[in-house]
Amino acid sequence: NAGVTQTPKFRVLKTGQSMTLLCAQDMNHEYMYWYRQDPGMGLRLIHYSVGEGTTAKGEVPDGYNVSRLKKQNFLLGLESAAPSQTSVYFCASSPFRGRPKSSYEQYFGPGTRLTVT
Amino acid sequence: GQQVMQIPQYQHVQEGEDFTTYCNSSTTLSNIQWYKQRPGGHPVFLIQLVKSGEVKKQKRLTFQFGEAKKNSSLHITATQTTDVGTYFCAGSGGYQKVTFGTGTKLQVIP
To answer: I need a labelling partner for B30 at 20 to 30 A (CA). Which of A10, B15, B16, B106 fits?
Structure first.
């Protein structure tokens, strides 16, 4: 089991360029998330998905789009990168466990360090 | 929206000293999780608390969930250098979306 993998690990973009970050999980998890992590600000949720074909906005969705065409993959797109999007991006997945043993633990990928110049 | 604050932001301790980080939510939580992130690494799930007043232990780590389910704490007894990292709490109001706290960065001086 690879768990949660992310590609690429590092990327440098110029302002205005576009790119897609790929997240893949092999744990058959229903839920997937994209976070960004900036110094002193913890983890902020960008978008999330509660199942194949569904996505929802998180706390900081502007400037990003996502797609979940397959259960195991969750893509994060930047259409026109800006310096404010320089950050470390983490993908996470979570299993669905209904009551009475509801569980929300998330499993994180290794992250993508993105710099926008 | 839901906000989750953690204090302190940073903590330096001498190896062997105890350490505590506190997590406070602006709203009542359905559950709370704790994660540890080593320098340069990714967050790793430690534990989840669900019940009001719940206390759980993992070796030298003690986790508590407040009676009102709006706050939580993580206490480490006799810190070791392997405890270095940032500790995050993450709260959920009952749905799968969670809000992470700002984190407490722990430095242990040998």
So the answer is: B106
How far is the C-alpha of A42 from the C-alpha of B105, rounded, in Å?
11
Report the alpha-carbon angle B97-B31-B43, nearest 5. 65
Which of B9, B45, B88 lies at the smallest CB-CB distance from A43?
B88
From residue A71, alpha-carbon distances to A26, A51, A55, B57 in Å are 9, 7, 12, 34
Whether B102 and A50 lie within 8 Å, measured CB to CB: no
Confidence band, pLDDT 50/70/90 cuts, at residue B96: low
- For residue A107, the chain B residues in CB contact (below 8 A) are 45
Separation of alpha carbons A74 and A69, rounded Å: 8
C-alpha to C-alpha distances, B38 to A79, B13, B63, B81, B103, nearest whole angstrom: 31, 16, 19, 11, 12
